[in-house]
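Thread: Modeling a multi-component assembly for a lab meeting

Hi all, long-time lurker, first post. My supervisor asked me to bring a structural picture of a complex we are working on to next week's group meeting, and I have zero experience with this. I have the sequence lines for every component (549 residues in total). Could someone generate the structure of the whole assembly? Inputs are pasted exactly as I received them:
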Amino acid sequence: MDTIALLSHSTPTAVIAYRAGVPVTAQRFLSDAKHLARSLPAGNHVLNVCADRYRFTVGLAACLITGRVSLLPSTHTPEVIAQLAGFAPDAFCLTDDRSRDIGLPRVFYPEELPTTDVAWDVPQIPATQLAAIVFTSGSTGTPLPYKKTWGRLARCVLDGARRLGQLDGRSHVLIGTVPAQHMYGFESTVLLALLSGNSFCAERPFYPADIAAAVAAVPRPRTLVTTPVHLRALLASQIDLPPMDLVVSATAPLGQDLARAVEARFHTSLLEIYGSTETGQIAMRRTAESVTWRLWPHIRLKVSSDQVFAHGGHVEQVTAMQDVIEITGDDEFLLHGRTADLVNVAGKRSSFGYLNAQLNAIPGVTDGVFFLRDGASGSTGVARLGAVVVAPTLSVAALTEHLRQRIDPVFLPRPLIIVESLPRNATGKVPQQELQHLANRHLQTDESL
Amino acid sequence: MSDNASLMQQPAPLTDVGLQREIAALFVQALNLEVLPQDIDPEAPLYGEGLGLDSIDILEVALIVSKQYGIQLRADAAENQQTFRSLRHLAEYIAAHRTK
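Re: Modeling a multi-component assembly
Sure thing. I ran the full set together rather than chain by chain. Output:
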């Protein structure tokens, strides 16, 4: 049977993580994972919400060793947790936050794990073992599961590691501003460190000053794994960053100007990764030099009835891509934005179909649509959603509270405009122009108060 | 943006309430919030069910706070809810740490 080692660190003393700047060895990590594995309750599906990247990774390793499956939903709203419990009734939640209740039986990450060393024998995980199930929001209101085997996850991440120069024999440290539970952070910090024999920083720095401190706390070569939102904030701040050997960005395309600004200001190179929850990472580009994306080896794109599909390599089955893609060569393509139904706010992905279904499922809502506000705002350049709703008995505050139970906070509409009827045209559609007009008029009225 | 600029030229000492009001005005303007600055409850949580800010807003606010008051906010992502517990807490933090 084909197997792939849980981690590729060649010696027990190799560093796998830094916690507050203090190195943790692969031996210690393996010992923690094996001890945690013994203390997990029955139940084959685990929602691992540990905020500390080290604890998350120990939890993931404990699951892999014992054949358990990690569940990675795109958000943790009560509605989605309830759907998860229906999907996997044996699921429990592994957490390091005692203050936060979640609608699943909770197992707390132990305060202390035994320090008695276990033998240095790295578990071999079958390539066909189901390692994780990731969920997209779907378009009908029910999250769609995508099964990821250990073998295909490993193949995807190792192809990326090679392109990112992480397999050059040096000991790279990954500093991630993205959570371990998001597909990008999962692949590019947690799995990348495990499978390339490198290490990650356990903290998740947020503010520009946090990022600078986290980078300074670990040795070179350093790789910052981040997003356009954080890069814009870093550029807008007056902070000087310690030397970074590589910056990796994903979740939303980065403009070439921004990429060049990052490279110039921080004296580094920036590589952008393209992927999706369904396919995992499949392409990369050095944005400052080229707008063309290069596919991972063995991954191919094809067009079928006006839709672009990815297949081959680690992509389990032929998968429709949700972006507008122009194929420019065997292993090259250009990206021309998102398909009409897809929504991406600061790296969180949903669809108008899903958001509208959630909105219209609220008792008291008789009609309503979400829309994307024209133009991004503020220093972080994030485009926000608005919504126009017919709900004669509900206040804006009550509606917002209902929505908060159902959708991720980044999608909460601002403004949320209550109207007597939607400006639907003859075909029953609400023209975008009308919605923008409503939103602008609404905001202007607000400011003149 | 001109309102913002005129605010920046007045680093004169402010009472707690004055500073709270000033920060509230910056929030409302920068984040396009649908409330009047004086209607923000100084004790209500800024995150989640209070003012309804999310992590992107908080990053935006951090940039404003650094430009306006010369404070580089520090917190691991998990602790942001503490820093932004309420308008009053944030105003106290800024009053204690501002360099301009």
